[in-house]
Amino acid sequence: MRKEYDFSKMKRRYRVASLIKKYPKIFKNCKTIQTGNGWYWLLDKLCAQLTIDSSVCKYPQVEAIQVKEKFGTLRFYVKQANPHAYGIILFVEGLSAYICEECGSIDNVVTTKGCIKTICKPCLKRWKNE
Ligand SMILES: [Zn+2]
């Protein structure tokens, strides 16, 4: 019997690896990102801005210690950051409440009750059928 492969997990692993590889200074001590695929573009923009702030503005390098979803929003915990970086991180964490964690869409996004998840209606329908 042929083994079934879960391509969605493979894709997720690849995305995690690519972000960690793309921003080695930020992810020096953080080797996993525990969120759905939909927030990767948001994380990419956040890391790009933090990298520019560090290299161009000479702000201290931000180092992530944990990146995950909690209560339906992104959490980007850092070792240290100046008030400017904290502001950007808080803003991006707040934005995640309006972006589907599964596909990245900003249309028809809802927050589920109970096991809180920020998800668009089409993804919610697929999620409930799994
Ligand atoms: Zn979605």
Give a quick precis of the structure.
With 130 residues, the chain is of the alpha+beta class. It has 4 helices and 5 strands; from the N terminus they run αβαββαββα. Residues 38, 100, 102-103, 105, 119-120, 122-123 line the site of zinc ion.
Number of strands: 5
Please bin the fraction of helical residues. 40-55%
The largest sheet has its strands arranged as 1-2-3
Question: What characteristic shape results from the CA principal axes?
Answer: elongated
Main beta sheet: strand number and arrangement? Answer: 3 strands, mixed
Which spans have pLDDT < 50 for at least 5 consecutive residues?
Answer: 1-7
N-C termini distance? 23 Å
Q: Total number of helical segments? A: 4
H/E element order: HEHEEHEEH
Structural class: alpha+beta
Round the mean pLDDT to the nearest integer and report it. Answer: 88
How large is the share of residues in beta strands? 15-25%
Give the number of domains.
1
Rg measurement, Å: 16 Å
Bound molecules: zinc ion
Structural write-up:
The chain is built from four helices and five strands. It starts with 6 loop residues before the first helix and ends with a helix. The chain has 130 residues and is of the alpha+beta class. Mean pLDDT is 88; it is low at 1-7. It is elongated, with a radius of gyration of 16 Å. The chain binds zinc ion.
Could you name the key traits of this structure?
130 residues; alpha+beta; 3-stranded mixed sheet; two-stranded antiparallel sheet; disordered N terminus; binds zinc ion
